[in-house]
Design brief:
The chain contains eight helices and 16 strands. By secondary structure, it is of the alpha/beta class. The two termini are 17 Å apart.
C-alpha cells in the first residue's frame, strides 16, 4: 500500500488461534484440499495451510477467513491520507487494517502487517460501526479499510460496510485491486470510494516485483469507475516504473475510462526488502505529472516530505 500505519491505539492481543469465520468464494479440490477463488491466484490450499495472502486457511477441508475481525492498526486519518483528495476533502475517517496481502511487493511500505501474521485484537463489525458512529462528533464520515490489503478479508469488509452504510456513513477502501469479478460485484453496492494502487503499467513489473498480474487490476479499475468514486495511485520507483513512456500510457489508459479519474503519482522511499534506489527527485516527479496531465484533469503528487 502507499501509506504508512499510524496507530490511534495499538492492539496487541494475539488472536491467531481464535475461531475464524467460514469463508466464501472457494470450492473443494479433493483429498481435503480447497481452492480459493476470491482473487486470481486461485490458491490450492492443503489442510492446515494458508493461501499466499495469509488471511485464508484450510481447516479440516473447509476454507476459513482467519483474518475476520482481526485489527492490527486503527487510526482516525484525514481522507486525503488514503489518498482520496477528491472525496469529501478535509474530513476525517476511522481507518483500520488487519494482516496479510495477496501481493508480495519487495518495496512494501506496510510490510510489518501486510507480509506476516501480525498480532491484533478481534473486533466485530458491530463494534467498529458503533465506534465510527461515536466519532461522528469529531466529523468522522465513516470507515476506511486500509494499511494492508482489505480485499483478502472481504467477508469482514462486507459485513462492516453494510452496517456503516445503514447508519448513514461512508465506506472507503484502499486496495491493490487484485480480486475476481464476482466477489467484487458483491462488494460494490456497499462502497462509496476506493483508492486503487496501479503499481505499474507493465505486466512484467507485476509478475516480477509484486507477484501478481496487471490485467485483473485494470479490470477492477474499469469496473469500480462505473460504480463509485475511484482514485488511482502509483508509487514511482526510479528505473522500474517511472519512464516517460510508461506514465504516458498509464494516464492515457485511465483517461480512456474517464479523464476525471484522479491519479496520485507518489514518491517511493526504500522499505522492506528494497534498499535501492532512493526516491525519485521532485523535479522528475513533477515532470511525470506534467506528462500525465496531458490526459487527465486531476493529477496530484504524493510523499513530498
Amino acid at each position: 500500500m502507499t501509506g504508512s500505519v499510524k496507530n490511534l491505539r495499538h492492539p496487541s492481543k494475539d488472536v491467531m488461534g481464535a475461531a475464524a469465520c467460514p469463508a466464501r468464494w472457494w470450492h473443494p479440490a479433493g483429498d481435503g484440499d480447497v481452492v480459493c477463488v476470491l482473487c486470481p491466484h486461485h490458491c490450492c490450499i492443503r489442510p492446515g495451510q494458508r493461501g499466499r495472502c495469509l488471511a485464508r486457511e484450510n481447516q479440516d477441508g473447509h476454507l476459513v477467513a482467519s483474518a475476520y475481525g482481526v485489527i492490527t492498526a486503527m487510526s482516525v486519518d484525514p481522507i486525503e491520507k488514503k489518498p482520496l483528495n477528491w472525496f469529501m476533502p478535509g474530513r476525517p475517517i476511522l481507518s483500520v487494517g488487519s494482516f496479510g496481502c495477496n501481493f508480495h511487493c519487495d518495496f512494501c511500505q506496510n510490510w510489518s502487517i501486510a507480509q506476516r501474521l501480525a498480532p491484533g485484537q478481534r473486533i466485530g463489525p458491530r463494534q467498529l460501526a458503533d465506534e465510527a458512529a461515536r466519532l461522528s462528533d469529531i466529523g468522522n464520515i465513516g470507515l476506511a479499510f486500509t494499511y494492508n490489503e482489505p480485499l483478502i478479508n472481504l467477508e469482514f469488509v462486507i459485513d462492516c460496510a453494510e452496517l456503516i452504510r445503514a447508519q448513514g456513513q461512508r465506506c472507503v477502501m484502499v486496495t491493490n485491486g487484485f480480486v475476481e469479478p464476482q466477489p467484487l460485484q458483491q462488494l460494490l453496492p456497499f462502497v462509496d470510494a476506493m483508492n486503487i494502487d496501479l503499481k505499474a503499467f507493465s505486466d512484467d513489473f507485476y509478475r516480477n516485483v509484486c507477484g501478481g498480474r496487471l490485467d485483473p487490476v485494470k479490470q477492477t479499475i474499469m469496473t469500480v469507475a462505473s460504480a463509485c468514486h475511484v482514485e488511482v495511485a502509483t508509487l514511482l520507483i526510479p528505473g522500474l516504473n517511472d519512464s516517460d513512456e510508461e506514465i504516458d500510457r498509464l494516464a492515457a489508459w485511465l483517461a480512456a475510462i474517464n479523464p476525471e479519474i484522479p491519479l496520485h503519482l507518489t514518491r517511493y522511499f526504500p522499505a522492506y526488502q528494497r534498499k535501492t534506489p532512493g526516491p525519485i527527485s521532485r523535479e522528475r516527479l513533477f515532470h511525470l505529472i506534467s506528462i500525465a496531465r496531458r490526459h487527465l484533469r486531476r493529477v496530484a503528487p504524493g510523499n513530498l516530505v
